């Protein structure tokens, strides 16, 4: 072993890590015992130890790990040492990007500190190629363990949420976390920082029925019945001396969060965002949310809540402008596909432009009403000259805005030239076009 001279004593700093999801055999005391036995076997003196107890290895943002790097590896004034002893690759970290794990190990090597994984021992001469293959594979396995565990936890949370119970997190303003026993009977309100003690207990939400709950009701009342704007409501609450959830004054954005929080209808809402494995949080489209209606007592009547959503849509330019942008994007995609279709049929550019203008196409942004998606399609009077209308449904918050496509008989539109239907209506299945038959239906329209 080229790293050791039998006539000299090498020095090392040991690093240990154990997180809540790891098995007990990976505990810090056990890792320390392995390190000491390894050091004694190879005549190595451990001059310092760093550890992270109960800390995830997904990132390098760990107190012990940062101290190891900054105070010992990168610090020119630190006492001399030769090795960094780590039980195995997973203790170094379960970085989702394997290059990140390699980066920190490379930093150590640049400063003449060799990372030694105790479970594998010292690399033998002539086996450098083998080491270069095994280490990346073990890094991948360490990362994969976290991904698999995260998936299991996520599916568990989904199942609990579908049953209407809390899968973690804090209660919304005006609400409280209610602990239920094994028979799902109430035990009591959980205070901030308190958690269930038995695995088969459950936590749900319930209105506090205090000043905060009344404030939520007042916000909806002021918005819908007195036609106050969110900014007006914030000023009214501040004049009354009512504090917001963080103990500070109300603002327009805080009022908007109350008005848009579906929890107040008694619905358990989960998976609105994705932020697993320390990755950047992103918002999920509503189609991926887990919504369980009537999971607990409502603060606001669901009809009142959806009435507020309708008014917010038209009150806030950012919302309806987003809908307009999605429709325009969908129009460009549809027109491009039609142009490609007509080009294949041998039509000239001028003829294509004329034919596109003739096709009766209408667009609608799908909206929610009491947890049911609806579409409202509007036709121009000249579209009634066609037997059928090509109707494109738009979904917000998606990279691909086209949600569903329908072929609706023109005589289905009433005297006001519009038609509203939900996914629960007969027309939804009756008029929806299979993706494989879209081109066929477009061609049929231009011949009618």
Tell me what the structure shows.
It is a single chain. The mean pLDDT is 83. The chain has helices at residues 28-41, 63-73, 89-92, 98-110, 128-162, 211-224, 230-239, 252-259, 302-315, 317-344, 349-358, 426-431, 438-446; strands at residues 10-18, 44-53, 83-86, 114-117, 175-180, 186-190, 202-207, 268-270, 273-274, 282-283, 290-292, 361-365, 367-369, 372-378, 388-394, 402-409, 418-422. 39% of the residues lie in helices and 20% in strands. It has a four-stranded parallel sheet with strand order 2-1-3-4, with helices on both faces. It has a three-stranded antiparallel sheet with strand order 6-5-7, with no helix packed on it. Strand 9 and strand 10 (282-283) form a beta hairpin. The N and C termini lie far apart (84 Å). The chain is α/β, with parallel strands linked by helices and 448 residues long.
**Quick check: average pLDDT?**
83
Order of H and E elements? EHEHEHHEHEEEHHHEEEEHHHEEEEEEHH
Class based on secondary structure composition and strand pairing: alpha/beta
Give me the side-by-side strand order of the main sheet.
2-1-3-4
| Discrete helix count | 13
In angstroms, what is the radius of gyration?
31 Å
**Separation, N- and C-terminal Cα atoms:** 84 Å
Strand residue content: 15-25%
Name its key features:
448 residues, alpha/beta
Outline of the structure:
The protein has 448 residues and is an alpha/beta fold. It has helices at residues 28-41, 63-73, 89-92, 98-110, 128-162, 211-224, 230-239, 252-259, 302-315, 317-344, 349-358, 426-431, 438-446; strands at residues 10-18, 44-53, 83-86, 114-117, 175-180, 186-190, 202-207, 268-270, 273-274, 282-283, 290-292, 361-365, 367-369, 372-378, 388-394, 402-409, 418-422. Helix 9 (302-315) crosses helix 10 (317-344) and helix 10 (317-344) crosses helix 11.
């Amino acid at each position: 072993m080229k790293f050791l001279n039998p006539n000299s004593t090498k020095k090392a700093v040991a690093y240990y890590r154990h997180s809540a999801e790891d098995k007990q055999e990976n505990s810090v005391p056990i890792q320390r015992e392995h390190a000491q036995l390894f050091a004694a076997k190879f005549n190595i003196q451990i001059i310092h130890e760093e550890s992270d107890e109960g800390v995830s290895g997904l990132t390098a943002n760990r107190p012990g790990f940062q101290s190891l790097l900054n105070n010992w590896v990168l610090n020119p004034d630190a006492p001399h040492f030769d090795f960094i002893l780590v039980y195995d690759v997973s203790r170094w970290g379960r970085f989702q990007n394997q290059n990140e794990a390699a980066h920190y190990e490379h930093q150590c090597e640049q400063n003449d500190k060799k990372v030694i994984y105790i479970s594998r021992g010292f690399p033998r001469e002539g086996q450098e190629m083998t080491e270069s293959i095994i280490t990346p594979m073990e890094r991948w396995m360490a990362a994969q363990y976290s991904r698999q565990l995260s998936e299991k936890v996520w599916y568990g949370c989904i199942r609990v949420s579908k049953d209407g119970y809390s899968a973690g997190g804090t209660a919304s303003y005006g609400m409280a976390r209610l602990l239920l026993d094994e028979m799902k009977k109430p035990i009591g309100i959980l205070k901030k920082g308190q958690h269930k003690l038995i695995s088969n207990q459950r936590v749900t939400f319930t209105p506090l029925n205090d000043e905060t709950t009344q404030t939520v009701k007042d916000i909806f009342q002021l918005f819908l019945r007195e036609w106050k704007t969110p900014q007006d409501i914030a000023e009214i609450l501040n004049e009354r001396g009512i504090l917001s959830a963080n103990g500070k004054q109300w603002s327009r954005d805080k009022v908007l969060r109350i008005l848009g929080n579906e929890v107040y209808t008694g619905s358990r809402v989960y998976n609105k965002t994705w932020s697993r494995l320390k990755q950047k949080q992103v918002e999920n489209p509503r189609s991926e949310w887990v919504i369980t209606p009537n999971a607990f007592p409502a603060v606001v009547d669901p009809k009142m809540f959806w009435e507020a959503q309708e008014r917010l849509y038209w009150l806030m330019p950012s919302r309806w402008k987003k809908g307009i942008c999605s429709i325009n994007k969908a129009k460009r995609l549809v027109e491009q596909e039609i142009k490609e279709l007509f080009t294949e049929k041998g039509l000239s550019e001028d003829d294509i432009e004329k034919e596109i203008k003739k096709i009766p196409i209408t667009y609608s942004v799908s909206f929610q009403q009491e947890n049911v998606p609806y579409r409202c399609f509007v036709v121009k009077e000249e579209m009634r000259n066609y037997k059928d209308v090509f109707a494109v449904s738009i979904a917000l918050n998606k990279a691909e805005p086209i949600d569903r496509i329908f072929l609706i008989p023109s005589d289905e539109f009433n005297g006001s030239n519009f038609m509203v239907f939900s996914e629960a209506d007969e027309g939804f299945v009756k008029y929806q076009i299979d993706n494989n038959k879209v081109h066929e239906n477009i061609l049929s329209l231009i011949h009618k």
